[in-house]
Amino acid sequence: DGDVYKYYADGEWKKSSSGKTVAIINPSTRKTQYKVQACTQEEVNKVMESAKTAQKSWAKTPLWKRAELLHKAAAILKEHKAPIAECLVKEIAKPAKDAITEVVRSGDLISYTAEEGVRILGEGKFLVSDSFPGNQRTKYCLTSKIPLGVILAIPPFNYPVNLAVSKIAPALIAGNSLVLKPPTQGAVSALHMVHCFHLAGFPKGLISCVTGKGSEIGDFLTMHPGVNCISFTGGDTGITISKKAGMIPLQMELGGKDACIVLEDADVDLVAANIIKGGFSYSGQRCTAVKVVLVMESVADVLVEKLKAKVVKLTVGAPEDDCDITPVVSESSANFIEGLVKDAKEKGATFCQEYKRDGNLIWPLLLDNVRPDMRIAWEEPFGPVLPVIRINSIEEGIHHCNASNFGLQGCVFTKDVNKAILISDAMETGTVQINSAPARGPDHFPFQGLKDSGIGSQGVTNSINMMTKIKSTVINLP
Ligand code: G3P
């Protein structure tokens, strides 16, 4: 019937007074794998209070000590990579090796954040007044970076550990406290990760993890007066959150429709390898996945043939067996993907493989000759289905990319560096990769989306800065 997990508050593991649990369905078996507590609004209130109190003394804890604890948590997390990865396999059907990579990457991210934090936060500014017209040198301004208070972190199902620590570590190094609301699929992996912070010995109440139904505690958390900043990664729920949240800083990453523009002079083997990795890793369930290929007609046949040869070689099956393509996260997600496929079929797309589905498992599918009137040309399937649109000019490719409501990343393949730079400048996305598939990492690189893809910028340095405020003290001389 599934193991039942407690939530984490005040440095302790607790059962919710609701007496209710939320089931986590294993995407592969479609049966209940685990259960987590359905926390109440009252429990959220308590967590917020403890977070507020704990933050006050944490902000006074020396920076080097905060860093030391984070390094400790990173080491413990890495030691526990096997059991955490196992949860990722069961909860979100992440292929076994990728699950291990996610945990290790998370440990590295925590350590890097601790190192970066001591440097960024260890420095302030000194300004003098006589640079501004009309002033004498009578004012000295000292600035430093102070924490915001309580940070609410809401990571998505596809990286429940990594996209949680990418919010937790910068929040903590900067002297904030943190309330984590993990995604339901991925909640147990997140609770295990939180346990590593618990073992590292962070003060009580500084980190907490509340689980439960979005309908019960979702809005309650995001609109809670005790929250001073929200860092969210996920779908368009983020847009709703941003409309309801109060006057607090928001960091949001809400998906994308990353385009891959392929020019005539591109190294087609390199392109094919990147499209397969970029489009199909974790079965396309990454916001940075290649989600539409825009290829010049003259090289399209060659590219599509190479892609077909590679798609056939992708292994399809269980995450435990480390297959390339594994069941998508939920039945509703599989149904949504199927809807896009059917629409493309009706409107005449060329199916490079036969469409095949068994439960939540969808076989990798390449759709050629996709046209702008098809939904798949614009919507993100978050599954192993990749549309190819044949273009006759670079402008056509850029136009399609920019007509999207998303603007996360994009990529361009060409040997002509001048063209690459011009295209990069023209693409309205937060990042453009030249001769590689889109990706968030390395995790200290800035990561941001334009338009509906997000607010603010992530990456270790940007997140630390985002979770602080500038405080000035001005010394007025006689
Ligand atoms: O989908 C979440 C996004 O942050 C992707 O990260 O590392 O797969 O590029 P990554």
Automatic annotation (TrEMBL):
Reactions performed catalytically: D-glyceraldehyde 3-phosphate + NADP(+) + H2O = (2R)-3-phosphoglycerate + NADPH + 2 H(+)
InterPro entries linked to this entry: Ald_DH/histidinol_DH, Ald_DH_C, Ald_DH_CS_CYS, Ald_DH_CS_GLU, Ald_DH_N, Aldehyde_DH_dom, ALDH-related_metabolic_enz
Residues annotated as the enzyme's active site: E253
Record's keyword terms, sorted: Cytoplasm, NADP, Oxidoreductase
EC number: 1.2.1.9
Record domain Aldehyde dehydrogenase: where: 13-472
UniProt xrefs under Pfam families: Aldedh
Keyword NADP attached: yes
UniProt cross-references to SUPFAM superfamilies, sorted A to Z: ALDH-like
Keyword Ligase: no
Protein's cellular compartments: Cytoplasm
Any one Gene Ontology cellular component term annotated for this protein: cytoplasm
Enzyme class per UniProt: oxidoreductase
GO MF, one annotated term: glyceraldehyde-3-phosphate dehydrogenase (NADP+) (non-phosphorylating) activity
PANTHER family in alphabetical order: ALDEHYDE DEHYDROGENASE (PTHR42991:SF1)
UniProt record similarity statement: Belongs to the aldehyde dehydrogenase family.
Stated name of the protein: NADP-dependent glyceraldehyde-3-phosphate dehydrogenase
